[in-house]
Design goal:
This protein is mainly beta. It is built from one helix and nine strands. Strand 5 and strand 6 form a beta hairpin. It is globular.
Length: about 160
Amino acid sequence: MGKYDDIELQGTSRTEALTAIGKQIADWALTMPAVDPICLHFGLNDFYTMGETEFWIANETEHGYCGKYLFVFDGQTCPHHFHKMKHETFFVVKGSIRMRTDEKDLIMEQGAVLVMPPGVAHSFTGIGAALVLEVSQPSVLQDNFFTDERIGQNGVI
């Protein structure tokens, strides 16, 4: 049991999701890092609509960096949120996503890069399955502020 248990898939649902993700990754002929993926439903219990799976490569709080892959299925959305401290850069490795920010909506195709400064709310949705690399400052609890206050504690994780 981990710090995300109340917002991530468990049991058979998790196994089924990871099997489907593994098949897609194999179809793309990619190798993922040997980590325990986090399949987030954000406490909304509708993973294939509002969720994502994270493969954390590093989260080096003492050294100031984080790197992780974010996987979304077709139509699956990482919910609208912002960070007060974390500065992020997204790189679309495979597939396409629709990125929504406070300022714009855009389609990001494979190879696209987008910088997300602190304070800018954003969400993204898979257009087909998609894999995104996030390079950022460290991911820390209490720096994830969601528009949907049902997530976490009044919208804060």
